[in-house]
Design brief:
By secondary structure, this protein is α/β, with parallel strands linked by helices. The chain contains 8 helices and 10 strands. It is elongated.
Length: 311
């Protein structure tokens, strides 16, 4: 018998909808190649190579012993000196997608909850990476446990990953928040058991606490891997409506007067300043971060942020 929550569009996610996103996994890439234009995947990540085979790097003067099949005849004719094309071997870039399905993600003011958007983003990322030929797996962390799907170059593996996301998502209504720092240490310990080096690690969360421990773990992972952060947020977290609201966490309630300009400014400035500080800290480790909201179409947001460079 189906769980009735699976039919609650925007609040909970279902497996069918996630699988249907496969057809939308195009027009963007998490695996940037070398390019002159500045993108969100600049710095360390943009310099990394992926895939299998050879990637053109440069043209240089021919040296005895070079493969004559790689001679660049156009440059040779123009310069009257023999030049050869230089290729570098591309490295495999297995991916691990880490998805937050904890209690803070169970919020949405208009169309979807953050947990649903995070699940959709994970599905799009998984299908996109598989289409680009790399192994992909995932980690789902929630209030009641952590699930790991090891990276494989297999569509069935993505199916298993998405099933774990759906399972944890449906638990959100009744789950109780756990100690954040304790859970965080366990999550990153699990990630380190899966990745070695030269992985692409995509972490999808609301990052509701930019704690020093989060930054320390991220810095460690970025030493030998490419790390990308996707912050999922709801517009109401930065712009409260012009009305009186009662907010609560199940234990306490407070009155928020959205009609007062100072309150609205406090929310906006607090949200933006916290994000900018986190973003600047991540720049030290060349870790890109981008934001995804809960109201716009996720595939449109991704294509705008992660446009595929023209070949």
């Amino acid at each position: 018998m189906k769980n009735p929550k699976e039919n609650t569009s925007g609040v909970f996610v279902n497996l069918k909808d996630l699988l249907n996103l496969e057809g939308m996994a195009h027009g963007f890439s998490f695996l940037a190649r070398k390019q002159k234009v500045k993108t969100i995947l600049g710095g360390k990540h943009a310099s990394s190579l992926r895939g299998r085979g050879l990637d053109f790097e440069e043209v240089r003067n021919y040296v005895a012993g070079d493969d004559i099949r790689n001679i660049d005849w156009k440059v040779t004719a123009r310069t009257q000196k023999t030049h050869t094309k230089v290729f570098s071997e591309e490295k495999e870039k297995p991916a691990l997608i880490v998805v937050d399905q904890s209690k803070s993600m169970f919020f949405g003011s208009q169309k979807k909850t953050k947990s649903v958007v995070a699940a959709e983003l994970a599905a799009l990322a998984a299908f996109r990476i598989l289409k680009e030929g790399d192994r992909v797996g995932g980690v789902v962390f929630a209030d009641e446990g952590i699930d790991i799907v090891l990276p494989k170059r297999d569509r069935k593996n993505i199916y298993r990953f998405l099933k774990e996301i759906v399972k944890r998502n449906l638990e959100l209504e009744s789950s109780s928040p756990v100690d954040f720092d304790v859970a965080l240490n366990e999550v990153f310990a699990k990630i380190r058991n899966v990745v070695s080096h030269d992985f692409l690690i995509i972490i999808i969360s609301d990052f509701h606490r930019y704690s020093p421990k989060v930054m320390k773990h991220l810095a460690y992972l970025s030493r030998h891997n490419d790390v990308i952060l996707a912050k999922v947020y709801d517009p109401m977290e930065r712009n409260i409506p012009n009305t009186k609201l009662i907010a609560g966490d199940g234990k306490q309630q407070i009155l928020i007067e959205g009609t007062r300009n100072k309150i609205k400014e406090y929310f906006l400035e607090g949200f933006e300043s916290d994000y900018v500080r986190f973003e600047e800290e991540m720049k030290k480790y060349r870790i890109p971060i981008f934001r995804i909201n809960t109201t716009s179409e996720i595939e449109d947001q991704l294509k705008d942020i992660l446009k595929r460079p023209r070949k």
